[in-house]
Amino acid sequence: CVLVFQVCLFDMWVEFAGLDQVEDYLSFLEYLLWVFTPLVVVFVLPFLIVILLYLSILFLHVYKRKNQLKEAYCNNLYDGARKTLATLWDGHGAIWHGYEIHGMEKIPDEGPALIVYYHGAIPIDYYYFLASVIIQKGRTCHSVADHFLFKIPGFKPLLEVFSVIHGPQEECVRALKNGHLLGISPGGVREALFSDETYPLLWGKRKGFAQVAIDSQVVMNLCLSLTGLFRWLYERFRLPIAPVYGGFPVKFRTFLGDPIPYDPNTSAEQLAERVQQAVQSLIDTHQQIPGSIWRALLERFYTKHKDL
Question: pTM to 2 decimals?
Fold first, then answer.
């Protein structure tokens, strides 16, 4: 009786869990695999070939600069590694985004300059800009980054090779007085996370970058390239958490504005306001508002843009 009762319970459990239909499920799954596997193969394999072609183009991009890389490695191991990575990023920008930079002649060939830029959600355009400066100018642009970047495991060697610092103002002034280029985004992570398709400048009352320029007596160059719970988390705990999407092969252009020379009669507040107006002018001149992913994708097929 006990055995019969256990068999009945097992049959009831099998029926309740739907296990009696497992064979049907497996047959249906087999049918799906039989139908969709050819489709996957048809679409995935050509995509892999496209990836292979792009990797081949990237290799040729690096090979084209082999003499420069060889010379860089002969001088210093880090110089060679820096130039190799810059070449890879430059190639990625050229292939994936058709990256262009306008106004590179405004970056000095030697001597200090402070570069102020708009901070995108993922500032990959700034990475391309750094790579272009290394390749075309033969200079390394120091960059100011948020503290959280230095807490990411394994990032330290990359930050050291590309001279990334987290401040404070004294360290920024020291870099400029030593004759380096220095890139700063006054909006920082706040601008990256909470700006939108209208490209507002979220600088608040920040003027530290202007004080750095005044203390260093340097020329200042201008570079253009979700709210709710996520903003509260950032403002309260400085956690850069927000949903991120994108990575589409849209057209990327960087526009460098006219330099703002050092003026001993200009205060930090006045200089900060002047810089903000100048960056806003670059946005108004070169950025179609609101931004559009579809329009940016279409721009890969034509080169029409507003000139400086």
Answer: 0.74
